[in-house]
Known about the structure:
Layout: H1 2-20, H2 30-38, E1 47-54, E2 59-64, H3 77-87, E3 91-99, E4 104-108, H4 123-130, E5 135-138, E6 173-179, E7 196-200, E8 206-214, E9 218-221, E10 227-233, E11 237-243, H5 250-260, E12 264-267, H6 269-277, E13 284-292, H7 293-302, H8 306-321, H9 326-335, H10 361-375, H11 377-381, E14 385-386, E15 403-410, E16 413-421, E17 427-435, H12 441-457
Parallel strand pairs: 4-5, 5-12, 8-10
Antiparallel strand pairs: 1-2, 1-17, 3-4, 3-13, 6-7, 6-11, 9-10, 14-15, 15-16, 16-17
Amino acid sequence: MKVCSWSSLVIILLASACTTSRIPGNNSRPDYVQEHLLNDSTLQQAQVGVAVYDPSTGKFLHNYQGNKYFTPASNVKLFSCYAAMKYLGDSLTGIQYFENDTAIFLIPTGDPTLLHPDYRNQPVIRFLQQSKKPLYINKPIWKSEAWGRGWSWDDYNDDYMVERSPLPVYGNVVEWVQEYNQPVVRDANGFLPSPSLYSNPEVNWKVRFTADTAATFNVQRALSENIFHVTQSSQAKATQHVPFVTGGLQAALELLPDTVGKEIGETSNATLRKFYRAGLQLISLGNIASQPLDSLLKPMMYRSDNFFADQCLQMVSYQLLQEFNERKLIDTLLQTDLKDLPHPPSWADGSGLSRFNLFTPEDFVAILQKMEKEFGMERLKGILATGGKGTLKNYYNADSGYVYAKTGTLSGVVALSGFLITQQNKKLIFSVLVNNHNGNPVTIRRKVEAFLTEIRKNN
Length: 459
């Protein structure tokens, strides 16, 4: 009797273990994932999570560690994109303003398109240029930081790690250009002719030069101030984009007057309260729309623009909370719109630069399903990169238009989450997250491409 009882108990425990290893309704085949993905030598020592979901059946076709947490890199932009689509409307609010009989008071909204070179149409600048009254910027409630929590500080000079701010201008980046107006030939003493050096926008910040010492043009900014060390080279023409220190509103107030044609002052909430107490009547209140929302979201997803993604969260924060407070906004979203995620994530920033981000593959399946339900697949096809375009330019070219997805890349991280249209015209939602690899990212992306292509053929 005792032997029989213990045998039954073992059988029950084994059956329970087999059942709980899968999500209810799951039709997962771990052997398939093993054969077509995990057996690759590049992935054998990495951590891998795979979730492939069929919305038509409500089941996972494949689910390997889909409930485990991974650093997702730029796949986080899917969550930022959702927040923007949910709360920013059809067009971005470029600036808010109100006025009395003596001045116009401007309220920043965090719009990253102001004077950005990608956007020739600048309604906010026209409004400022045409205004007849003195202009004042109202200092906002800024409770975020210029850099995100968990960013690698020593990337500060690279154009993918731009400071966040309440009033971005020129993408918070200065373009440095070196070009020679004559043939680059050394004279008898071995010296090169002096190149032309300029910046876009034109700035009056400190610049230090080192001439003719490198094969490559290079600009290095000081860590905490706008001092730029320029090393000239023999290149006929060279450019480099370097983030500048925003200082909150400071950089914008320095750079805007040349374009607007007038000075812009700064006020605080305390100053505005004085106006109210003095009985000065507000005669208008309005918003200046800048760009269609999707004209921001498409480049954000196509080229994985970190700056646009982080500013999206700042804009949503201002819209919902009337302050720029990224952490409070994330908590708010996780407690409301995203409360039904399969696994509560650790969400640190809008771009995915932070190593503190932790999401599961099942979380990405859930957010993609939610985005399709709320905004429609056709709109998502216009925002997400597909084969041969954007960050998928060199992938999924054999039969373009069957993958719509977001890539993610950090050191040791490769990620891809999106929609897969099968040869039988079935729409699947997938997420493949790879962490702690020590291989070539291109090799891993090719392996993921082959894995998804195989799934497409067989479904």
